[in-house]
Design goal:
DNA-binding; 39% helix; Jelly Rolls; 9 strands; homodimer; 263 residues
Chain lengths: 263, 263
DNA sequence: CGGAATCTTGAAAATGGTCAAGATCAGTGG
DNA sequence: CCACTGATCTTGACCATTTTCAAGATTCCG
C-alpha cells in the first residue's frame, strides 16, 4: 500500500511542465528508447527539422481513431494507452497497451488511414512526429529512416509473439505472460517490477488476451491461491516470478514487449 | 478434377525461364503488386540500381531461418511459402502463407536477425532485394522507401486482423475466413476463385488458425454437409460463397490479405 | 508396390464461456 | 465527510466448444 502511494507520487512529479511546445530530442530523458535512439549528437541536432510537437491526451480521449487520416507517428512520453481494432461485424479487440517510450501510429501508412484506434487510459503526453517532415528529412537523416523501419519490424515481431500466445497458450499461460510482460516494461522505465497498478480493467486484459473477463479474474484468484501474486483489484504484487515464468512457458519473449526504439 | 489439371498446367507454363540473373522490374508481369508498384517509368528504370536477383527455392527448402542475418527483402514471383516462428519452449506457429506478389523478409530489421523462418511448400521463385542497395537508393528513390514502409504497415494491419480472428472467432469462423481469404488471393492472381488446391496440410492450417488438425478436418466435413464446399483432400471447391462469408462473420477484411504492395 | 504421411471420424475429457448473483470500489453530490 | 450510484470485480453452477486419444482409411512418393 505504501509503495502504491510512492508510485503515484513519482508519476505526479512527472506530470508537470507540459505545453504545446516544440521539444528538443537532444534533451529528452526518453531519447534512448525513442525514435532518435542511436543517432549521433549532430543528427540529434538535426532532429529540430523534424520538430516533434507535444500533445496532451485526457483520460478516455482518443489519440486517433480508425478511419482518421494518418499523418503522424507518436511517441508516448508519459501515461498509458490502449490500441484496438473493430471488425465489420462490430467485434473489437485490443491490440496493445502502450506506455512511455512506445511508438504509435504505424498502422495505416499504406492506405493513408488508420486501421486501429488509440485511447488514453490515463492523462498522457505524446510527441508528434509528422510523416511529411520525417520523409523530407530522409536525405539528411538516413539513420532516422532506418529507425522507422526498425520500429515497424519490431512491432511485426511483437505481433508474431502475440499470435503464438493467442493460438497456442491456455488462459493460465496468457495471463502469466501478460503480467510478466507488464512487470518487465515497468521495470525498464524505472518503476518497480515487483508491484504495480494495472491501468486497465479485467475486460480490457481479456480483450487483449482473447479471454473473457471472468476467466481473467479467475486466473488472478488462481495465482493468488498458488502464492504467485497478491492482487487487490488493480494493484498487483508479484511474489514468485520464477514460478510465474514457468507457467508462462517462457512465452515472455523479448518480442512481446511493445514496439520500442531502444537499441 | 478437370480444372485441377488445368490449374497445374497453368502453373507448369510459368515454371520455365529461371536463372540466377538480374531481373528488370520494368518488364516484370508482377510489378503492379510488387515493391516498385506506383513508381514512374523513370523510377522503374532506376530500379536497376537495386538490381533484384532471382532465386529458386526447392519444395521444403528454407528461404531463410530464424536467427539468419537479415540483409534482404524477398518478393515471391511464383510458388507458395509458409512462415513460422518457434518459441523458446519449442512450440511453433505458422504466421502466414505467401504466394506470388507477397513480400517476405520484413521481420528482424531491428535486430539484424530474422525472427521467423520461411519454407517453400512447392518449388518457388523469389526476387531478392538487398537492404543495403535499397537504403543507398533511398536518395534517388524516395518513393521506394515509402513503399517499404507501406508493406510493413500493411503487414501490421494484417496481423491485427489475425489477432482478432485468433482472439474472438470460433473454429467454424476461422476456417471459413481462411478459405475465403485464400480464394480471393488466388482470384487476384488470375486463378480460379471457386476451386483450387490447398498447398498446406490440415495441420499447417491448424497451426496458422490456432486449431488442432482434427478440428480443421471436422470443419471441412461440416462445410461439406452444409453444402458450402466440396473437398477432396487438398482440392477445394467453393459452392456457396455468400453463406461461407456469413459464417466467417465478415472477418474477411481486406486486411487479412497477405502483405502486398498493390496500390 | 509398400511404407510413411496425411486425413477422417468417434468418444471421452478438459478448457473456457455463459449466466447470474452479490461484493467491492470510485466518483458524485449533498 | 458520507451516502449513493454505476462500474468493476469475484465466484458458482452449468453448458458449449475444442482438444485429446485412438483407430482406421486414403493418399503420396520413392
Amino acid at each position: 500500500m505504501l509503495s502504491r502511494k510512492t508510485e503515484f507520487a513519482r508519476l505526479g512529479t512527472k506530470l508537470r511542465d507540459v505545453g504545446g511546445l516544440t521539444l528538443s530530442c537532444a534533451h529528452c530523458h526518453l531519447r534512448s528508447r525513442c525514435l532518435p535512439s542511436g543517432l549521433s549528437l549532430d543528427e540529434l541536432g538535426e532532429m529540430r527539422e523534424v520538430a516533434p510537437r507535444q500533445r496532451r491526451v485526457a483520460r478516455g480521449e482518443a489519440l486517433y481513431q480508425a478511419g482518421d487520416s494518418c499523418h503522424s507517428i507518436y511517441a508516448v512520453r508519459l501515461g498509458f494507452f490502449k490500441s484496438y481494432v473493430v471488425t465489420q461485424d462490430g467485434r473489437s479487440q485490443i491490440t496493445g497497451f502502450q506506455m512511455a517510450g512506445d511508438i504509435l501510429g504505424l498502422d495505416g501508412a499504406d492506405t493513408g488511414t488508420h486501421t486501429q484506434s488509440v485511447v488514453a487510459l490515463e492523462v498522457s503526453d505524446v510527441c508528434v512526429f509528422s510523416y511529411a517532415k520525417l520523409e523530407t528529412a530522409a536525405g539528411n537523416l538516413q539513420a532516422l529512416q532506418h529507425k522507422v523501419r526498425c520500429v515497424m519490424s519490431r512491432e511485426i515481431a511483437r505481433e508474431h509473439a502475440m499470435m503464438v500466445l493467442l493460438g497456442t497458450a491456455r488462459a493460465e499461460e496468457r495471463v502469466a505472460a501478460f503480467l510478466l510482460n507488464l512487470s518487465e516494461r515497468y521495470g525498464e522505465l524505472g518503476y518497480s517490477e515487483g508491484e504495480f497498478n494495472l491501468r486497465m480493467t479485467r475486460e480490457e486484459m481479456g480483450s487483449y488476451l482473447g479471454l473473457k473477463l471472468e476467466t481473467v479474474s479467475r486466473m488472478f484468484s488462481h495465482f493468488q491461491e498458488c502464492g504467485l501474486i497478491t492482487a487487490q483489484h488493480r494493484y498487483v504484487h508479484i511474489l514468485d516470478r520464477p514460478k510465474l515464468a514457468r507457467l508462462a512457458g517462457r512465452n515472455v519473449l523479448p518480442d512481446i514487449h511493445e514496439t520500442r526504439m531502444s537499441q
